[in-house]
């Protein structure tokens, strides 16, 4: 997973209400609506989950240690979705023990390598990378008014890109993929045969109205390559759009640090799809 820093997340909690409004303006629905769309959960199940599910967030101190505010931010995102959640008072194994003793249905836990949601009843494990990709692809589908038969450029064929590709393919999009690591792009094509591999990013970018940037590379989407219709879903940290055009494109960019990924993780962990 991308290793976040305190400065990346310090504003998330206090901006959740305004971010929800921003998502409604851009996609027609809020954070919960995007996660519902990504996972295929019906409203009646969502309402039942909210009432009956208890969510724990466990701090982990190994590796680079606990990021100040990380667990509290995860809790706040879960709470704005309407769920009951808490951060365990203990860390690491003791924190997991505490979560089980308090009858948590889902445990969120992260170290330097992995960020997962674990369903304690079904044993289902949801990876943040896959869930984030699916969530952002769902947001792009909503913005597009349906992505079926529309051309989408997917930048990055790692865990986030794989999750995004799976959702986009399910929705019938025409996917082209670019990855600086050609073997990753080829591996993705083996799983989704309809994907087209492109080799020169700057050359093909202007031809697409829908772009999903699933990379952790800064500034790879150049201002000169952005057309006037382009919608960009960009879960990557740092933001992959050249800084000179971020402000002018803000109404056409879907980007956050954790919110869509965490919401999709939770709904995926609670529900099979």
Automatic annotation (TrEMBL):
Q: Which SUPFAM superfamilies match?
A: NAD(P)-binding Rossmann-fold domains
The residue ranges of the Quinate/shikimate 5-dehydrogenase/glutamyl-tRNA reductase domain are 145-229
Instruction: List the source organism.
Output: Pseudobacteroides cellulosolvens ATCC 35603 = DSM 2933
Instruction: Tell me where in this chain the Pyrrolysine biosynthesis protein PylD N-terminal domain is found.
Output: 11-125
Protein name from the UniProt record: Pyrrolysine biosynthesis protein PylD
